[in-house]
Structures are given as C-alpha cells and as structure tokens.
C-alpha cells in the first residue's frame, strides 16, 4: 500500500474537503427526474456515486423524487446486505476529557458531569452483564484524554476478550476514541480490535473551529481529518467515519462524508466499513444551537442518500434516535443498530443509580431491552445478526471491499446472521422472541435456493441446536 505520509501538507494532515466546491454544488438548480433516475441506476449497479452526483440527489426535494430515492435505497440495501440487521452495544470506559466541545456533556468545563474511568473489575462486571443479554459485538468509547492512550485502550480490549461468564463471550470489540499516530494504531491493532471509528463531527471548517475552542488535538481539524488514513497506513484497515448532524447544514455533511469515503477508496483501495450519522441530542450542561437541527423528514432523506452514494458501506443507526424514528429509517438502508444500550459509565450494572443524566454523554432516545428490539425486528421481516465473521476470517480492508462492492457479501452475511440468531434464540431469548425467530429462520431457509451453501447452513444450524457455538462462514 502506498503511503501518503510524504505528501501531507504538515504533520497535522492534509485537506481534501473542498468547502467552496461543495457549497457551490448545494446552490445549483434542482435535478429533473431523468437525471435522478440515471444517478439511481448507477447506485443500483452498486457503483459509488461522486460528490457531484450525490449533490444532485439532494437538489430536488419534491415528494415524487424523494419517494424514488427511498424506494431505491430500500432495494439497494436488500441487494447488498439482504434483510439482516447487525446488533451491537456501546461500552463507555471513561469520560475524562481535555477538550471543550460545545455539544458534549463530557467537555472539560462541564462541572455537572460525574467523571469516572472504569477499572478492570468494573469492566468485567459490565461485560458479564452484556454477555448475559446475548451481545457478541461491542464498541468501546473513551473521552479524549492523555490517560486513554493506545496502551490503555489495548489493555481494556484485552480485558473484555478475557471475560468468560458461562453465558457466551464478546467476539469483536470495535473502538471509538481519539485519532492516534501510526504507532498508537499499531498497538491497538495488536490487541485484536475490529473497526476503529473516528467522527469528524463537522466537516465545515469554521463551524469546526467554533465548536472546538482552545488549543488541543481535537481543535486541529486536519489532524482529525487525517485520522482514519493514518489508521489504514498502520494496518488498521477496518475504519468507520461519521458526522454529528446538527452542527452545520446536513446536506454539506452528507457530501463531505461522501468525499471522505471516495478519498479513502481512491488512495487506499479501502472505503469506510461503516458510516455513522448521529443527530445532536440533549445532554447535561449543554445548550443546543437549534439553527441546524435536522428534522425527521430530512434525517430520512440523508440516510437514503448515503445508502445510494456509498452502496458497499455499513450504515449505523444508534439509539440516540427514538424507537419510532428507528423503525422508519431502518427501511432506507441501515445495516447496523445498537440495542439495550446504556451510555453512562457503569450503566449496565448500575442503571438504577442516581445521577444518570450527569453520567451520560447525551440522552438516548431508545432504551428498550435487547430482546424487545430483537422481537420487533423479527416481526418486521428483518434478520437480527451478531455476526463477527469478517473480522476474524480476515475479510477486512481490500478483501472486504472485493466482497462488498459487487454485493457478494450478502452470500456470507445471511448464513452468518442465521447461525448467530439461532445461538441467541437458544441461549437468551424470551419465549415470544424465540417463536418469532424460529419462524423467521424457517422463512429464510425456504427463500434460499438449493445448493451447497444452503446445505452447509442447514448442517451448521443442526450443530448449533446440538450445543456447538461460533460456526462462522
């Protein structure tokens, strides 16, 4: 892989977000339906869209055009990922922070927040609680603070993998933490992490400067923008990007995310494994600026457009959103959600404790238990999945792209979804969820064409019923 280190403008990175060009695209005339249909046809052929093409999808907000985009996004998601939805849970390790981000409860000047860093025993208790729910995939979250360096993050990941409660195990730990230098990424990679996720927060330069006051690494726009590129160069080839919607014009952020994905693919042959699109939420000690808050209707549009613009990537919808919004947006291309989530420090074992608001980074919108979310997904013809196969079988980076871009990944995703679903039904599910899941597995097997893969799947399902676990495709 060719390194870009020598081509950077400075040690802080280099800038590939052409802000004036994006703003000019957003001010253009609306696309007609023929142009929209041509762009949608490119997406349906599983080809990533350019920034210009994506802007044309955003240019026309007529009900007819928006419905065309929604219909295409629904179909494209089925074509690439099938009807499966991957589930995970966040685990907040520590909320010490040296930054003063205006939108975040963890910012250093917020005296209301209760500061805490989980010790090894605290982590063990949280992981046991998550394993007893049935979770297999976690994302660990850290404030941006010198204490949470690469060695500390690697130790936390190793602690999590070591916890065996007798009710399953965590098979994959992803990370949401501050950008690192190349050596830092090498250290966390050696701990066996999955995706390293960095949100730019906002790609708009002036807004970024305003909401990240002071002089810290977080206030350095280019250092953050370059963070996932450094990760890839350090062989963390599974990366996630995202923006916090509500800080600036949502259309600008969508085009910038597309530009970021294209940049990574162009220079590294690796696009983002995931894109996240959280909206601003109320938080302790935070006064929200409502100028750019994103309506539910625009939120649906941005998810559908991202699905069409970056067909291969996983789209993550978090429990920031209330249940009714999640039900709707799931249709438009989402492939991953969290469920049963707690985001206060120690929340999985101390959920009834006082001062919950003062221990959260923001308020959650959907606090339903994992089993309730599972049952609703099943009743709506989705297949909940706890799959971690790609990470552990080496399908990351360029190899993942080879499977994902043409849509071949579905041939692996569906069998892995069904095997991990059956594990959940046998080991954790309520009787009602078990009945819904058993019926769903039968439906999926009926839909699947006869052949070697179906026979392999049926054999693995039998082995799981007999007590075996973790049989990835």
Describe the model.
The protein has 473 residues and is α/β, with parallel strands linked by helices. It has two domains: 75-404, Alpha-Beta Barrel (TIM Barrel); 410-465, no CATH class. Helices cover 45% and strands 10% of the residues. It is built from 19 helices and nine strands. The protein has an eight-stranded parallel barrel, surrounded by six helices. Helix 5 (120-133) links the parallel strand 1 (84-94) and strand 2 (137-142).
Question: Topology of this protein?
Answer:
Layout: H1 19-26, H2 33-44, H3 51-59, H4 63-81, E1 84-94, H5 120-133, E2 137-142, H6 150-162, E3 172-176, H7 182-190, E4 196-201, H8 205-211, H9 221-225, H10 227-233, E5 239-243, H11 250-268, E6 274-276, H12 296-309, E7 314-317, H13 323-329, E8 336-338, H14 370-379, E9 383-385, H15 389-392, H16 397-404, H17 410-427, H18 431-447, H19 452-465
Parallel strand pairs: 1-2, 1-8, 1-9, 2-3, 3-4, 4-5, 5-6, 6-7, 7-8
Helix pairs in contact: 2-4, 3-11, 3-12, 4-12, 6-7, 11-12, 14-18, 17-18, 17-19
In short:
The protein has 473 residues and is an alpha/beta fold. The protein is built from 19 helices and 9 strands. β2, α6 and β3 form a beta-alpha-beta unit.
The averaged pLDDT comes out at 92
The oligomeric state of the chains shown is single chain
Weakly predicted, low-confidence segments? 1-12
- Can you tell me the CATH class of the largest domain? Alpha Beta
Broad shape: globular
What would you give as the CATH superfamily of the largest domain? Aldolase class I
Largest sheet, described in full?
8 strands, parallel, barrel
Number of helices: 19
- What's the Cα radius of gyration? 21 Å
User: And the CATH topology of the largest domain?
Assistant: TIM Barrel
Structural class: alpha/beta
As for the number of domains, it is 2
Distance between the termini: 28 Å
Helix-strand pattern, N to C?
A: HHHHEHEHEHEHHHEHEHEHEHEHHHHH
Q: Please bin the fraction of helical residues.
A: 40-55%
How large is the share of residues in beta strands?
A: 5-15%
Number of strands: 9
**CATH architecture annotation of the largest domain:** Alpha-Beta Barrel
């Amino acid at each position: 892989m060719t390194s870009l280190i020598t081509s950077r403008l400075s040690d802080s990175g280099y800038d590939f977000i052409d802000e004036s060009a994006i703003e000019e695209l957003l001010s253009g005339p609306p696309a007609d339906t023929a142009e929209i249909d041509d762009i949608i046809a490119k997406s349906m052929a599983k080809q990533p869209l350019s920034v210009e093409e994506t802007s044309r999808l955003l240019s026309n907000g007529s009900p007819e055009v928006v419905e065309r985009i929604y219909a295409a996004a629904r179909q494209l998601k089925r074509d690439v990922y099938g009807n499966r939805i991957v589930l995970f849970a966040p685990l907040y390790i520590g909320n010490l922070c040296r930054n003063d981000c205006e939108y975040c409860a963890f910012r250093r000047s917020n005296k209301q927040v209760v500061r805490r860093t989980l010790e090894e025993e605290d982590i063990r208790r949280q992981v046991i609680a998550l394993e007893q729910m049935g979770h297999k995939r976690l994302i660990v979250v850290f404030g941006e603070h010198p204490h949470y360096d690469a060695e500390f993050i690697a130790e936390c990941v190793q602690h999590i993998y070591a916890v065996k409660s007798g009710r399953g195990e965590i098979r994959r730990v992803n990370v949401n933490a501050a950008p690192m230098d190349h050596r830092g990424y090498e250290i966390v990679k050696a701990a066996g992490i999955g995706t390293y996720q960095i949100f730019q927060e906002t790609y708009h330069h002036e807004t970024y400067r305003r909401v990240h006051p002071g002089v810290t690494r977080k206030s350095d726009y280019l250092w953050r923008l370059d963070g996932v590129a450094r990760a890839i160069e350090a062989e963390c080839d599974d990366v996630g990007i995202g923006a916090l919607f509500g800080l600036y014009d949502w259309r600008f952020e969508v085009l910038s995310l597309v530009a970021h994905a294209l940049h990574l693919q162009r220079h590294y042959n690796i696009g983002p494994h995931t894109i996240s699109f959280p909206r601003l939420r109320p938080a302790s000690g935070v006064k929200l600026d409502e100028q750019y808050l994103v309506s539910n209707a625009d939120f649906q549009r941005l998810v559908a457009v991202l699905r069409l613009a970056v067909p291969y990537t996983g789209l993550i919808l978090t429990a920031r959103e209330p249940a009714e919004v999640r039900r709707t947006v799931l249709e438009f291309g989402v492939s991953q959600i969290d469920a049963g989530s707690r985001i206060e420090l120690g929340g999985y074992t101390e959920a009834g404790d006082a001062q919950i608001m003062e221990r959260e980074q923001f308020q959650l919108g959907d606090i339903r238990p994992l089993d309730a979310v599972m049952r609703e997904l099943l009743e709506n013809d989705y297949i909940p999945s706890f799959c971690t196969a790609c990470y552990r079988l080496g399908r990351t980076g360029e190899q993942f792209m080879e499977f994902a871009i043409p849509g071949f990944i579905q041939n692996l995703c569906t069998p892995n979804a069904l095997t991990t679903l059956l594990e959940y039904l046998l080991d954790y599910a309520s009787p009602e969820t078990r009945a819904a899941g058993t019926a769903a597995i039968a439906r999926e097997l009926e839909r699947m064409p006869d052949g070697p893969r179906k026979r392999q799947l049926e054999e693995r399902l039998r082995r799981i019923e007999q007590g075996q676990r973790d049989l990835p495709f």
